[in-house]
Amino acid sequence: MYKVVTGVVGNDIHVVANRLIDISLQARGFEVFNLGVNTYLEEFIDAVVETDADVLLISSLNGEAEGWCRELQFLMAEYELKDVTFVIGGNLSVGESKDEDLVKKYQSYGFDLVFHQIELNDGLDQLEEFLGKKS
Amino acid sequence: MTLHQKERQIIVKNQYVDSFDFDEIEEFIRSASKDLFISHKFKNSDTTLVQPRGGFPTYQKQFELYEEFEKADIDVMPLTIDSHTRLNDYGSAKKMLDLSEANEVDMLNGYPLVNHGYRTTRKMTTHFNRPVSLRHGTPDARLLIETALASGIFEIEGGPITYLLPYSKNFPLDKAFLYWKYVERVCADYSRLNEPINRESFGPLTATLVPPCVTIVIQLLEMLLSLEEGVKSFSVSFAQSGSVTQDAVMANVIRKMADFYAKKIGIEDATINLVYHQWMGAFPRNKEFSDSLINSSSFIARLVRADKIIIKTRDESFGIPTMQCNAQSVANTKYTFRVLKGLPLIIDEEEEENLTKEVHSIMEAVFNDSADTLWRKVFNSIKNGIIDVPFSPHVINHNNVITIRDEHSNIRIIERGNMPISDDCLTYEKSKVKLSEDKTAVINKIIEDIGVMHE
């Protein structure tokens, strides 16, 4: 059973997506550690270390993820989190922006999977596929 | 000087606030134009009043927005407050206001009322001479509400439950009750000077499959907490549910229950109004469809005889609407109301009876809590899960109630958590839905049901 840490990053209170991600992951057989809304990047990393999670799934809906997630690459190096799959999804930019530019940008921060305005189940299908290939 | 007066002196002493002249403010309210009071407008209107949302950082832009609204013959002006002010962070609000003024870019998502101050804002409210409604989302709104009332804003939205459970993860709920008690008292005191100040609760809550009994119970409790402090004009509200029948049932039941419970605590001289919110969930990403959705909401508002409607715009799924778009939405809704005549009254006795029973059971459990004051009873009831709001981000909320839509799009309870609704009521609710055995299929149905208006 894969362990997933999830939550909404930054000063973002969008709880609906967060709860849906939680119950959908559970229905797919993941063990979920949901930190809820208003979570900071350091808290996510602490939870990943503490639970020995396989996946960190960060969501953001108000578009402020970019400001928070640049730090990921530094924290990854610091904690040597090589085996963790990093996923970010939701509404990843303030205003309109091209998908491919966004994906590249977030990949450069250290994310393996980047889902900008994608249906939840499509994203989770892709996550399962990715984990399947990885193992 | 009473303790309450002392507290007021302390609250208004703040480095971001010019000194408060309470004598002058009282005199202003005593002699203020009746047209500024929505309570006065409610009394003299036989249609549904129209109110949009809207708040810009600078005085100049807010003034221009009001000019646009005036051209659309708006009934109630909105003043939406920025998110820094909602969190009592007046320092950040000031910084962002300064940047907005210097660069003509909006760096705030609303009007920082505390930073602008009452002397400045009052010039705007008295210039337009229409009722203004304060929309915020602040758990500790003491300074904000002192500033609003001094500015001539005589309708205050919010409450300790409805402005906390949908918006906050860990602001202490008991503190919110006490901060709102202060607000109610200030509103009640000023209500003695002229027309009453109107308080309005925020019925949409999380706007996500909230069952009608939860909405109504919370509306009633915030109403009672307000009336017991002496408020004389109160609006209960709810948002479009997605089912016309359920909206009609909710309107009928909430009206009856509001009268019943006001009388139960011995209050017979308060006016209770009903406010209807156009669809509060995700909008279609198609502006023409959005127009259709808005229009159907307006129809329902008239059908349920709402006293006021709070409207959306066709730009809803794209961000903050332009002033022109917002004003156009006001004009459209007013047109719809002018042409909608002779609507029938919808009554569904079976549904009303079931909902009434659910509301009474929960209210009874709240009243039976052993605490000595109403706010403590309500606090305990939320903590125990007797009141449970689906999709609340707050740590105190149980999140054990699960709801889903039936074939007519009515929201039905399939898991009651700790909510004390009877087995009969739960059986009735569950009898309306056919649930799949497959867990993922049920979740997919819930996701579909949340985004029921999405295209």
Shape of chain B: globular
**CATH architecture group name of chain B:** Alpha-Beta Barrel
The span between the termini of chain B is 59 Å
Strands of chain A, count: 5
Core attributes:
heterodimer; A: 135 residues; alpha/beta; 5-stranded parallel sheet; 5 strands; 47% helix; globular; B: 455 residues; TIM Barrel; 8-stranded parallel sheet; two-stranded antiparallel ribbon
Description:
By secondary structure, chain A is an alpha/beta fold. Chain A has a single domain, classed as Cobalamin-binding domain (Rossmann fold, 3-Layer(aba) Sandwich). Chain A has helices spanning 15-27, 41-51, 65-69, 72-79, 99-109, 120-134; strands spanning 3-8, 31-34, 55-60, 85-90, 113-116. Chain A has a 5-stranded parallel sheet with strand order 2-1-3-4-5, sandwiched between helices. In chain A, helix 2 (41-51) packs parallel to helix 4 (72-79). Chain B has 455 residues and is of the alpha/beta class. Chain B has a single domain, classed as TIM Barrel (Alpha-Beta Barrel). Helix content of chain B is 48%, strand content 9%. In chain B, helix 9 (142-150) runs parallel beside helix 10. Classes of the chains: A alpha/beta (135), B alpha/beta (455). The A-B interface holds A 13, 15-16, 18-20, 23-24, 27-28, 36-38, 120-121 and B 167-169, 206, 208, 391-393, 395, 399, 439-440, 443-444, 446-447, 450.
